[in-house]
């Protein structure tokens, strides 16, 4: 009986550890920022896997029309391909973070490989746009203790999310919007995608449409929601924590 119980306990622990390595809100492997102050009425739109031609540019048009700032986590090899798009994002006042150079599953990478992914992406961003945020988002959300430690050593803060539009799997704009709107409570970091990690020119037209619908739904409504960058949301969270 005892060996069986030990085996069950080990299996449960392994399952929990695997879950924590991918769970957006998991904190076992190191502190990450995944949401702001609940009820703060802030919403942070974040976009992964760009820059992407043409949908990043179309998204910029939507955000500019509504005077909304967002946060983009860019893949270094795409930044190297299209530095002009990365620069356009920066010039419009959006925050830009590190999403590695090739978008690998970091939980399977060595410390040296992880460090190179982050450093190469940072170098690509530096060449394209100069100074940028110190935020880092692991591809697929996958991380382990070494991932967080290496990011911290490089001066990067790991940023996850608490809501997702699930827009990577061909969802319609209405589905993307509903995935998010059904859970918005304020202080939300929303995961969306302006590109695709497999290739440039991934079709994100539905995400662009859903973004405009979400902005129209929450901006300047009676509930007082405000769209902010992750940097702005962090500032409110930090000040609230200090006051508390």
Question: What does this 3D model show about the protein?
Answer:
With 244 residues, the chain is α/β, with parallel strands linked by helices. It has a single domain, classed as Glycoside hydrolase/deacetylase (TIM Barrel). The protein contains nine helices and eight strands. The protein has helices at residues 2-22, 55-65, 76-81, 83-91, 111-129, 145-153, 173-181, 205-218, 230-243; strands at 42-50, 71-74, 95-98, 135-136, 157-158, 163-164, 188-193, 226-228. Strands 1, 2, 3, 6, 7 and 8 form a six-stranded parallel β-sheet that branches. The protein has a two-stranded parallel sheet with strand order 4-5. α2 packs parallel to α8. The longest helix has 21 residues, at 2-22. The radius of gyration is 18 Å and the shape is globular. The N and C termini lie far apart (49 Å).
Give the H and E element order.
HEHEHHEHEHEEHEHEH
- In CATH terms, what is the fold-level topology? TIM Barrel
Number of strands: 8
| Count of helical stretches | 9
Query: What is the straight-line distance between the termini?
Result: 49 Å
Report a brief summary of the structure.
With 244 residues, the chain is of the alpha/beta class. The protein has helices at 2-22, 55-65, 76-81, 83-91, 111-129, 145-153, 173-181, 205-218, 230-243; strands at residues 42-50, 71-74, 95-98, 135-136, 157-158, 163-164, 188-193, 226-228. Strands 1, 2, 3, 6, 7 and 8 form a six-stranded parallel beta sheet that branches. A two-stranded parallel sheet has the order 4-5.
């Amino acid at each position: 009986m005892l060996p069986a119980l030990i085996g069950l306990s080990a299996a449960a622990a392994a399952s929990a550890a695997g879950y924590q390595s991918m769970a957006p809100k998991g904190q076992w492997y190191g502190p990450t920022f995944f949401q702001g102050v609940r009820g703060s009425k802030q919403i942070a739109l974040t976009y992964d896997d760009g820059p992407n031609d043409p949908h990043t540019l179309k998204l910029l048009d939507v955000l500019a029309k509504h005077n909304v700032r967002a946060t983009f986590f860019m893949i270094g090899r795409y930044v190297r391909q299209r530095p002009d798009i990365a620069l356009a994002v920066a010039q419009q006042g959006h925050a830009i973070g590190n999403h590695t150079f090739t978008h690998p599953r970091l939980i399977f990478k060595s410390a040296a490989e992880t460090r190179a992914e982050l450093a190469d992406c940072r170098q690509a961003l530096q060449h394209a746009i100069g100074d940028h945020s110190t935020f880092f988002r692991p591809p697929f959300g996958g991380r382990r203790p070494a991932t967080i430690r290496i990011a911290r050593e490089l001066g990067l803060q790991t940023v996850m999310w608490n809501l997702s539009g699930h827009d990577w799997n061909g969802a319609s704009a209405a589905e993307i919007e509903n995935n998010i709107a059904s859970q918005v409570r304020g202080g939300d970091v929303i995961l969306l995608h302006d590109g695709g990690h497999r290739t440039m020119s991934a079709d994100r037209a539905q995400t662009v449409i859903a973004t405009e619908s979400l902005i129209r739904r929450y901006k300047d409504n009676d509930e007082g929601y405000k769209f902010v960058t992750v940097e702005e949301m962090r500032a409110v969270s930090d000040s609230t924590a200090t006051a508390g």
